[in-house]
Structures
1.
Amino acid sequence: MNLILSPETQQLLETRMRKAGFSDPDDAVRFALQALEQLESEELDDETLAAIEEGLSQANRGQGRPWEQVRSDLRAKYLAE
């Protein structure tokens, strides 16, 4: 099988190959496909699904917070020295 990649995709592939240390495109594509397969096969546990549902319910009720506030709170909590 021969693949034709857009220049943007080829550049992305080459960049990722350098960063990850892949020696040829076949290794990089194989790794990416295996990672995708693993990601698709993973199921969320009941606790995580319940938390997602609760978050969506809160957002639907208008109880969400602006991203800037959440980001600021996370930075303060995890990046504080």
2.
Amino acid sequence: MLNATARDGAVTVVPVEDKALWRAFHRLPHDIYKNDPNWVAPLNLERKIHFDKAHNPFFQHAKGAFWLAMRGGVPVGRITAQIDELHLAQHNDATGHFGFIEGIDDAAVFGALLREAETWLKSQGMRRALGPVSFAMWDEPGLLVDGFDNPPNVMMGHALPYYQGRILAEGYSPAQDLLAYGYPIHQPFPPTLQRLIARAQDKHKFHFRPARFDKQHFASEIALILDIMNDAWAENWGFVPMTKAEIDDMASVFKFLLRPDALVIAEYEGEAAGFAMMIPNLNEAIRDLKGRLFPFGVLKMLWRLKVSGVSSGRMAMMGVRRKWWRSPVGAIVALMIIQKAKTGDFVRRAEQAELSWILDSNERIKHVLKSVGASVIKRYRIYQKALV
């Protein structure tokens, strides 16, 4: 636990290399956020697996390092640094990332952590640091800078307000903002959009179907979704293609937690044109578990997700193939995917959805979301710094 000792004395940064330090690394956020009613403790077992290089497919194409900041023998901060070979191949920009940054409200702690990460990145030949990205853009990128007054949705980050000032003080500047939109699920589309969609359906052959999770079709469905994702997001800021191993890992979890109608595939003139995935808010189901699944946490979680239901969800992924981006077809597919995703079995019992994350520079999708009545509820920021 943090105490007065953690506030005084010199800060040392140590690599996380043994079981005791890993326990402290994962325990630290529990201490940092103990007085924050909106923080949701992640599942301890899931975090251990996520950081295990033998189990997380991110490390098939990346390397990383992990540190704890100590003062008087007490952990007061943590950080990771990682270099993604797929990012370097895609962008050729000599950029590494830092992530999972946590710390007490102390300039010395944040300074020591960021300098350690920067030194490691420079030793690996990097010329720019970007973050926080934890571990990749497909995971939980960005630092929460606005929207601290409610809990994060599933697979979205949380932070304390002072974090952004501490990072800026170390010479970082904003690189990109990511937005989370809130949307009342049962709010109907405006009449003008409903008429637009009706005319499009009369004129063109649109078809929307749930994903097929049965044994015969599961592999081909996942391959289709991966193909759409990597095409739809290819021109986005910071894009790195998702690998088959990564989507297979994600699919193994979602297959266990989701119903097939949580994932909607859009077809236009017989061709798969886009998809969207609306998932129940796992954070709502685990908020009181304090990270523990055993002995009874897993039963509570599954009951809340599959039986009693949760009141919120997240449209975690949505994509339309690039060939239709600048055509009316693309806009109609995006609107209808949102509409169809609202009718799944899970969302019939939910009240609110978060549509996230959206690049602040993506004016096209921002316009679509505004047209259906969604509004920004959280803002995340990625920072950058030249390494000299």
3.
Amino acid sequence: MDTIVEVESLRRAFGARLALDDVSFRVAAGECFAMLGPNGGGKTTLFRILTTMLTPTSGRALIAGADVQSESAAVRRAIGVVFQSPGLDPYLTVGENMHHGGRLYGLGGPSLAARIDEMLAGLGVADRARDLVKTLSGGLRRRVELAKCLLHRPSLLILDEPSTGLDPAARREFWNLLQRVRAESGVTILLTTHFMEEADRCDRVGILDRGRLVACDAPAALKCRIGGDCVTVWCDEPDAMRRRLSAELNCQASVVDGVVRIDSDVAGDLAARILATFGREVRAVTIGRPTLEDVFMNETGRRFDAGEGKPEAA
């Protein structure tokens, strides 16, 4: 299968701090690939480099065979971009926004008008063409943004946190629409997200933390790394509990943000033994199938939200 995105040893420094540290990955044509990570993990820096808005400190990134740094014009022709912040003029109509978006890519005349009609109809917003964007709901605005960035038939669609600000119903609706667009047009999708459920819907997921790519595989394959179910123990002295679990029950545990975690193939039996052995020293014990958050904790030793709120660049 052809490779449409190729990132090799990508680094981006802001002063003494590395926002991206030796990041390498590939995205195959037609794939849906998510870059998952907490705020401050490096996702926005990567997005800005791939969309030609920021130059890397070292390494390289190719999109459809074109270098994002030396062949930026070719890259921009190959991509459609949905930004995290609204990319529509709220005081223009939907049709006017579409027209100006098409003109930026050199489209015009009857062919642009036909393409606008096709995209708006395909994304279910043809009846809103004369409405001001500011009158639309968040979900409808996302539809229009998606229609606008597909006008020039890009081979790669790059989305930065596309569901931010949408309620759960609008988020599901947008994702169903996105998958339909992919199936019908064959466009490759690369997105950044901090929503686990979004990453779970993708073919492959890269986990980006503190500028480093700590894991990259299909969601199911990443979860298989955990090795069994996850037993979580809440108690007042987690470090002491971890040592006692090792000494008295011969199980390897870790402490992540004040919570004891054990990966086990016999989670039900282990949970019962913990309660029987430690009694009221344990406030609660839960069992769950591995999730992408468990994968993140397994790879980094921290909960997923531990790095949120830290800016990527000054």
